[in-house]
Specification:
disordered N terminus; 0% strand; 308 residues; mainly alpha; flat; 16 helices
Length: 308
């Protein structure tokens, strides 16, 4: 194993691979890009929960607690999936799959993040603390250990844990559940299957080699393309609910419709005019789609607040 830090002034040998720092490996297992997107959806949930600006304490403690627990869930996922990650081209370079971080150290790291996150959220309210912990268990244990290897519907069922952050942001501010918060959960829940199935189509050989029963492996690529299309159409319908219920206005309706119909266009091409690399392009679009959808939700909320 190469040294963690190069000696000062010593140039690396030409052609060698410099070992990333330990902190980079620990950061990697928290899946920072995924956590950042989860925090965006949580922040939007916080802002939509109140007419004006949400309390600064709820925002700071809420985002910190949700972020730490999300990072802990990601780290536990790396621990539990390390043997499967080692068999897949997309994940074989991960720190635990390569043995750059000991399993016991990763578990300890994840546990510290989990406890700190829970403690921060407990200072806001018990509901948010327990809901966030339940989401962690749902993703890190129920999905990773059981659902992922038990059924091709793993993404559909397990997606509920990943859809929780907007609800968590809402409860962090209000301390109670609300139907509008559940609409935000429905948006992410409906978005999750076509997002992951597009990736699964692109990485079918990887999942097959690792023995993971993703939908393209068990039911074939064409069936999965059909399911991606059906779920994107469902996403268009679910996307209307915030406007139909009066939660959001015309700015949201226009923006979300453009984004959702764009997703449908990608799914239609995937199903009926597929070309090499389009599944990966669909996956990448889905990420920007969710980002845009929640930015539009937030923009509509502030616009309505200004017009009142």
């Amino acid at each position: 194993m190469t040294k963690l830090f190069q000696t000062a002034g010593r140039a690396p040998v030409k052609g060698s691979v410099v070992r990333p720092g330990v902190w980079q490996d620990y950061l990697t297992i928290t899946k920072p890009k995924v956590v950042a997107m989860l925090l965006l959806t949580a922040l939007v949930g916080m802002c939509l929960a109140v007419p004006g600006i949400p309390p600064i304490k709820a925002v700071v403690l809420g985002l910190a607690g949700i972020g730490l627990q999300s990072a802990a869930a990601a780290a536990f996922n790396h621990v539990l999936d390390r043997r499967f990650d080692a068999q897949m081209a997309r994940t074989h370079h991960r720190p635990l799959a390569k043995g750059r971080i000991a399993t016991t150290r990763a578990v300890g790291f994840a546990t510290v993040l989990m406890v700190l996150g829970f403690a921060l959220l407990w200072q806001l309210n018990a509901l948010t603390a327990w809901l966030t912990f339940a989401s962690l268990v749902g993703y890190a244990v129920v999905y990773t250990v059981w659902l992922k290897h038990a059924t091709p519907q793993n993404i559909v069922i397990g997606g509920l844990a990943g859809a929780a952050p907007p609800l968590l942001g809402w409860t962090a501010v209000t301390g109670q559940l609300d139907p509008h918060a559940l609409l935000l959960v429905m948006l992410v829940f409906t978005w999750t299957p076509p997002h992951f199935w597009a990736l699964a189509i692109h990485r079918k050989a990887d999942y097959a080699r690792a023995g993971i029963p993703m939908l393209p492996v068990t039911h074939g690529i064409e069936f999965t393309k059909t399911m991606v299309l059906l779920y994107t159409v469902m996403l268009v319908l679910v996307g209307l609910l915030p406007w139909l219920t009066g939660m959001s206005g015309l700015f949201y309706l226009a923006g979300s419709s453009i984004l959702n119909l764009g997703f449908v266009a990608y799914a239609l091409k995937l199903k009926f005019a597929d070309v090499p690399g389009h599944a990966w392009a669909t996956f990448k679009y889905s990420i920007w789609h969710l980002l845009g959808l929640f930015v539009v939700l937030l923009g509509d909320h502030w616009l309505l607040a200004l017009l009142r």
